[in-house]
Amino acid sequence: MSDLNHPKVSVVIPAYNAMRYLPATLDSVFNQTYTDLEILIIDDGSKDETVEWVAQITDPRVQLISQQNKGVSEARNAGIANARGEYIALLDADDLWEPTKLEKQVRCLEDNPAVGLVYTWVKYADEEGNPTEKVQTAYVDGDVLKHILQSNILCCASTPMIRRSCFDAVGVFDSKLSGVADWDMWIRIASRYLFGLIKEPLVLYRQHPNNMSNNCQAMLLDFHQLIERSFASVPPNLQYLKNRAYGHAYLYIAWKYLFHKDLKNAIDLNRQAIAHYPQLFFSKSYIRQSLILAAMRRFGPQGYTKMRDSLKQLISSKQPSLGNN
């Protein structure tokens, strides 16, 4: 039974004009097998019906906190400041949780006192919330600092459950870092605590145009600021990871430019990635990206898209139906 005054888990949901997705997201919290929780919905200056909709919810575990539009980091910080739980679970307003997510993460933290953050695998979903075949896996737990300095191993901010004491020790999200504030937070936590991992896809990460950053240049500056700041306090024996961090960052932003059909900048960052970290040459992400860039340069973005779709149809037509033996 949940103690409304002393819940074990605080679920923090920042929401900005998210009514298209928020009801299903909240249902995925209500459907959790673990029920000793409170739900803090942070209305970040929404202009839709978020406030009116939340006001009609009768579940006493739900609390609305309204603020002027300050961005997702400040919304998360408002939730953390008002949270009463020992553990804090972040959930973006357009993502979904599988029913056993909280139960398994609480068990992990209860069984491992040295773990400050526990995350899970992620399954990608389309805009309607239907799961796709793509699953983001990870195999890094324990002392993850060496790994997380190189790249953000948590691909989705809706995966972690974090001890409240971690925020007391390392501070809250840095809103000045915009799109990389979550990676900055995970680095700070990893510098002091161990990480746990549930090797199951317990989060559905919804993909839609609104969660794709349109300002690649601003993201590039954020990455640069974060990497320089992080490595300013890294021990000498880990300084060699700095070029790797830049390599992964440039490769990631090259994908963003590629999504927006900006071949010039995508190619430039693809080359910078390999210049900073040559071993990326053998990674699946770099190989795939380079092949796509080569095809787009040869056939143009539209020609590449037609060729890709034709190949998909050809492969699909070769698959035997379930009725064939």
UniProtKB/TrEMBL annotation:
Domain Glycosyltransferase 2-like: from-to ranges: 10-167
Say which domain of life the source belongs to: Bacteria
The protein's matches in Pfam families, at most eight in alphabetical order, are given as:
Glycos_transf_2
Coiled-coil positions are none
Looking up Gene3D superfamilies in the UniProt record yields: Spore Coat Polysaccharide Biosynthesis Protein SpsA, Chain A (3.90.550.10)
Name the chain's protein.
Glycosyltransferase
Q: Which species is the source of this protein?
A: Aerosakkonema funiforme FACHB-1375
